Amino acid sequence: MTQGTVKWFNAEKGFGFIAQTEGPDVFVHYSEIDGGGFRSLEENQRVEFELNPGRQGRAGQPRSGTLTLHAP
């Protein structure tokens, strides 16, 4: 799994971006957040994720697959 930090996330629209340690920013959609209930992310939150090969975000950037949150 790859680690990164949430750059920004719009809970109303259900998507945002993760900054990887190395490589381009990654598009994330709320449906990829592991867990039940209301799924959202906070700016600067550390996360662990799998890249989803073959799927891209709106501007062609990489897209995340399953995303796991780190405890603060």
Please identify the oligomeric state. Answer: single chain
Q: How many angstroms does the end-to-end distance come to?
A: 19 Å
Q: What is the tally of beta strands? A: 5
Please state the CA-atom Rg, rounded to the nearest Å: 11 Å
Which stretches are low in confidence, meaning pLDDT under 50 for 5 or more residues running? none
What's the shape? globular
Largest sheet: number of strands, sense, barrel closure: 5 strands, antiparallel
- Which band does the percent of strand residues land in? over 45%
CATH structural class: Mainly Beta
- Total helix count? 0
Question: What would the average pLDDT be, to the nearest integer?
Answer: 80
Q: What's the helix-strand series? A: EEEEE
> What is the CATH topology?
OB fold (Dihydrolipoamide Acetyltransferase, E2P)
Structural domain tally? 1
The helicity comes to under 10%
Strand order of the largest sheet: 3-2-1-4-5
Category from helices, strands and their pairing? mainly beta
Could you name the CATH homologous superfamily? Answer: Nucleic acid-binding proteins
Looking at the overall shape, the CATH architecture is Beta Barrel
Protein name: CspA family cold shock protein
Main location: cytoplasm
GO molecular function, one term: DNA binding
Organism: Mycolicibacterium fluoranthenivorans
